[in-house]
Specification:
Number of strands: 10
Number of domains: 1
Number of helices: 10
CATH class: Alpha Beta
Strand order of the largest sheet: 1-2-3-5-4-6-7-8-9-10
Largest sheet: 10 strands, mixed
Distance between the termini: 50 Å
Structural class: alpha/beta
Shape: globular
CATH superfamily: Alpha/Beta hydrolase fold, catalytic domain
Length: 275
């Protein structure tokens, strides 16, 4: 275990004979751990700005899923269901019986898979910029959306993302991105078995427009909440950590979700019509 400063440590656990790297904040007794789940082709490093801001309320863990970042390669690309199984193994190895999952992009369908497979292990889910499904089809459209998003992200994001994408490789990226666009994220979200908060950015080209979100939300469970951060693109965890951590903390504490005037972006809750 390596001390990374400011109360954070770095270590590895073994999952099916492979080393999986993770970052961990200081323990907060009595609080459920918060586990952050990254998107495709990239490590968990870009999730750290939000994780650091949530570290005062609970121990936060930010793993690099198998084959990503500093974790060992498995020799082949794990799909979304396999990554969900791997995440459950990580929780087992770390002795985490129940957690709050905070996913971004592809980390959202992975988190949903974990919740559906083992709802007793997941207290709540936060889905930040959930990707996948009909709005990202076909593949050409999704690639254009991704290119558009890259121009809207914080420029400092490139320092984290580019080395990760190069390490992951274009072939792996293509196959997994193609699977993500076909994954029924919306259907899984509508039937989520645990309380769920979805956070979307107004400038995220990979997300359906708010009107469409309201339309499909008629089928959503009553324990589903959707918040919109004005001015944010896809990687909200990196670009708007103050606003996002404020939204997450408010929701976890059962407080009204309102804007944090001290952080970039403007937050509002989308009023969801119910069937």
């Amino acid at each position: 275990m390596v001390d990374n400063g400011a109360g954070w440590t770095e270590s590895t656990v073994e999952v099916e004979g492979h080393d999986v790297f993770y970052r961990e904040s200081s323990d907060v007794p009595g609080a459920l751990p918060i586990v952050h789940v990254h998107g495709f082709g990239i490590s968990g490093a870009y999730l750290m700005p939000t994780a650091r801001m949530l570290a005062s309320r609970a121990v936060n863990l930010v793993p690099d899923l198998p084959g990503y970042g500093k974790s060992e390669s498995w020799g082949y690309t794990l799909g979304i269901p396999a990554l969900a199984v791997a995440l459950l193994h990580i929780l087992d190895e770390l002795g985490l019986d129940k957690v709050v999952l905070v996913g971004n992009s592809m980390g959202c369908p992975i988190s949903l898979e974990v919740a559906h497979a083992a709802p007793d292990r997941v207290d709540r889910i936060v889905l930040v910029s959930p990707a996948g499904g009909i709005h990202n089809q076909g593949l050409g459209r999704a690639v254009r959306q991704l290119a558009m998003d890259s121009a809207r992200e914080n420029r400092r994001m490139a320092r984290v993302a580019v080395p990760d994408y190069l390490r992951f490789g274009p072939v792996n990226t293509f196959h997994l991105f193609s699977e993500m666009t076909r994954f029924p994220s919306l259907e899984r979200l509508l039937k989520t078995p645990v309380p769920t908060l979805a956070v979307i950015g107004s400038k995220d080209p990979l997300m359906a427009p708010p009107a469409r979100v309201r339309e499909v939300s008629r089928l959503a469970a009553a324990h589903t909440t959707v918040a919109l951060i004005e001015g944010a693109a896809h990687a909200i965890n990196f670009s708007h950590p103050g606003e996002l951590s404020h939204v997450i903390s408010s929701w976890l504490d059962g407080r009204e979700i309102v804007d944090d005037p001290g952080s970039p972006g403007y937050t509002r809750v989308l009023q969801l019509p119910r069937s």
